[in-house]
Amino acid sequence: MTEPIPSATQAVRFAIEFLTQYVAADTEEKRAEAAEYIAQRLSGPGAMEAIHVIRGQLYLNELLLLSLAKANGAKPEEYRNWAGEWLRTNSHKFPES
């Protein structure tokens, strides 16, 4: 029997759980602990399929980017264009490793 497909809300809550663990980690040691926690949640009981975890991360990122667009003065009809421009402008600024 296949598992039911989680709702978008469930997927976003899973993404928030992971992001909360990672953001709270302020040292390399704590980041490693957060990564281990996330790995256990992805493979342990109640683990969500990878596609749903990715979907939750995408939904959460979309919400955050649209909120950032709003906070930076974009009009509602400009949010998605603003978010796309932010991604294009900042993607090269992230380190390779």
What does the model show?
- The longest helix has 22 residues, at 50-71.
- The model has no long low-confidence stretch (mean pLDDT 90).
- The chain has one domain (8-93).
- It has four helices and no strands.
- With 97 residues, the chain is an all-alpha fold.
For the residues shown, what is the average pLDDT? Answer: 90
In N-to-C order, the SSE pattern is HHHH
Report the end-to-end length measured between terminal Cα atoms. 40 Å
Whole-number tally of structural domains: 1
Low-confidence stretches: none
Structural class: mainly alpha
**Proportion of strand residues:** under 5%
Q: Could you give the count of β-strands?
A: 0
Helix percentage range? 55-70%
DSSP helix count?
Answer: 4
What's the overall geometry? globular
Task: Give the radius of gyration.
Answer: 16 Å
User: Sheet with the most strands?
Assistant: none
State the gist of this model.
The protein is mainly α and 97 residues long. It is 69% helix and 0% strand.
Itemize the secondary structure elements and their pairings.
Layout: H1 8-24, H2 28-43, H3 50-71, H4 79-90
Helix pairs in contact: 1-2, 1-3, 3-4
Keywords:
97 residues, mainly alpha
